[in-house]
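explain this:
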Amino acid sequence: MAFLLFFKDINKESVAEAGGKGASLGEMTNASISVPPGFVVLASAFDRFIEESRLKEEITARLASVNPNDMASVERASRMLRDVIQSTPMPEDLTKEIVTAYTQLDAEYVAVRSSATAEDSSSASWAGELETYLNTTHENLIERVRQCWSSLFTPRAIFYRHEKGLIDAHVSVAVVVQTMVQSEISGIAFTVHPVTEDRNQMIIEAAYGLGEAIVGGLVTPDSYVVNKKEMSLIDVSIGEQTRKLTRAKLKDQVPAIQNQATNMSEEASGSNEWINLGSEGSKQKLTGQQIITLAALCKKIEDHYGFPCDIEWAYANNQFYITQSRPITTLK
């Protein structure tokens, strides 16, 4: 296939074609880390789409016209660029490649995630700037890929370009299509304490349900501090979680996230829903043994890369899965 690669054929050197997220997932797959299987629609597919649709000049002109201090100009450029990308048909041969790979993946649901090619260096991260769609099916897969492409031009992403001096740089976007883990518990781990910067302490955050809720700051998670040398639990703080995000039942698929100060787009898919937790939300989300098991897995990832990592994880069917790893960019 000319415009996509499965994770097994990607590694950390593949950022230019698979984006930071795709390259990381391929690298971890080949390092025998438990990563849900998937493939990447390469940045060359987006570049070809832009070239054949003759949108390159319009994108350049619209970005050049933006005044980052004028919110109206940012939103105007974003709206026009996103609309034209999402309304332009994808080439038939590219559509066929994506559908064929999806069929080979043999997954009922997939997560579709944007992966920018200028992503996740030690000094910058596009994390949170681009869009993710959970519980995607064959019916809306191609639409979600185009929406991920267009998320390179959300207002937040345009601001980020200005902030990082990338407004004139060539930034492309790949799209990760990954088997969906219907996580019972999910969260984030920082292999170096992000506040104290203690290199011997790891912080794990955990919440019930799908991980996009905790990544978007929409729930209050547990927080666990682990001593990395001794693999011992130093501190436990239990979060009062009032609701969790799960895949919606087919009979009543309803909007899940109402875009509460985030760029997540599950409200457009209608494939997820919020469930009220009641007293369950005040319980500790992971047992002590589970915390240490996850901490050991995260340390393995840090040791593999050789730098502190910001890791997204999911737990389902008695197994931990890693859905993303990137450098921590906030350390001194």
Remarks:
- The domain at 185-327 is CATH 3.30.470.20 (D-amino Acid Aminotransferase; Chain A, domain 1).
- Residues 120-124, 251-269 have pLDDT under 50 and may be disordered.
- Residues 288-305 form the longest helix (18 residues).
- The first strand starts at residue 4 and ends at 6.
